[in-house]
Amino acid sequence: MNKNDVFALDVASPVGKGFKITGAAFDPEMLRMERFLEYDDDGEPRARYLFTAQEEGVTDVLVRMVPVAGGDATTYRQVSVTIGAGGGWFD
Predict the structure, then answer these.
(1) What 3-state class would DSSP assign to 91?
(2) Model pTM score
C-alpha cells in the first residue's frame, strides 16, 4: 500500500476460546488508528481496526488478547504491513 492509504484489519474475536481482545500494538509513526469497532457477524463476534499508512517501511500490527478469567496479555494475531515501494496489493 502507499502512504496515506486507509486499510482495515478484521479478525474473529477469540471469546469462544475464553479470551477477549484488549487492543492492538503498532508503530504510531507508521500507522494512525482511525477507528476500532467490535461487531457481530451472523453470531460470530469480530473486531475491526481501521488504519491510515503514514510513513514508508515495514511494520507489524499485534492484536492483543487476555484470558476472560484473568491473566497476562498475549498476541492473538500478528500482521505485517508494507508501506511504499513494492507494498501494493497487486505488486
Answers:
(1) coil
(2) 0.84
77/26 Cα distance (integer angstroms): 12
**What is the DSSP secondary-structure string of 2-70?**
-TT-EEEEEEE-GGGGTEEEEEEE--TTTEEEEEEEEEEETTEEEEEEEEEE-SSEEEEEEEEEEETTS
Per-residue pLDDT of the chain (91 residues; tens, 9 = 90+): 999 999 999 999 998 889 999 999 999 999 999 999 999 999 889 999 999 999 999 999 999 999 999 999 999 999 999 999 754 554 4
Which residues sit opposite 22 in a β-bridge? none
What lies within 8 Å, CB to CB, of 26 at 6+ separation is: 33, 51, 59, 60, 61, 62
